[in-house]
Amino acid sequence: MSHLSVKSLAFYGSAIALVVLLFKAVTTYGTTMKAPPPIDGRYRITTQNLPGCLNSEKLLLTIQQSGVYLNGSLISVKTAEELAKTVEEKPSLTGKWNAQNQTQPLYLTGSLNEIKECQNQLVSIRGVVNGKTLKGQIKLETIPQIVGFTAEKENPEKSSKQLGH
């Protein structure tokens, strides 16, 4: 008695062909996908006319990136050295990087726990990263106005030296 019938050969041949076609389709689709550009780092905000409790502060926006997902913190430069490790472990802002949105692909929202004068206020930040420059808008929950800002990305070597690493 033969175990190789025409029906079983046709079934196994079809199954193998289907797997090969699915593999080809998935790999073709995968090669057309692109990872979002890396934007993580420390951005020193240079704008002077920030809203409310942020007005008197020199600020640093730290961004951590995992694909399209972002975490970050908005901290005072004078306390940046003290808070750097805490901020990296427990960022207070969360958001996404949406490369499809050409006008403002970066979005972060959360509380300002690291700035004493702004304790527990909610903030939202939207912006566009172009090279080492972040141009965006910042809005505090307690103030109706949206204020534009510009931030420059610090070099990683500079950040490490400032933190004593």
Q: How would you explain this protein's 3D organization?
A:
The structure is a single chain. This protein has 165 residues and is of the alpha+beta class. It folds into two domains: 1-33; 41-162, Lipocalin (Beta Barrel). It contains three helices and eight strands, in the order αβββαβββββα. The protein has helices at 6-32, 80-89, 156-162, and strands spanning 41-45, 59-66, 69-76, 93-97, 106-111, 122-130, 133-140, 147-153. It has an eight-stranded antiparallel β-barrel with strand order 1-2-3-4-5-6-7-8. Strand 6 and strand 7 (133-140) form a beta hairpin. It is elongated.
The largest sheet has its strands arranged as 1-2-3-4-5-6-7-8
Percent of sequence in beta strands: 25-35%
The secondary-structure element order is HEEEHEEEEEH
Give the second-level CATH assignment, the architecture of the largest domain: Beta Barrel
Could you give a quick summary of the protein structure above?
The chain has 165 residues and is an alpha+beta fold.
List keywords for this structure.
single chain; 165 residues; alpha+beta; Lipocalin; 2 domains; 3 helices; 27% helix; disordered C terminus
Lay out the secondary structure.
Blueprint: H1 6-32, E1 41-45, E2 59-66, E3 69-76, H2 80-89, E4 93-97, E5 106-111, E6 122-130, E7 133-140, E8 147-153, H3 156-162
Antiparallel strand pairs: 1-2, 1-8, 2-3, 3-4, 4-5, 5-6, 6-7, 7-8
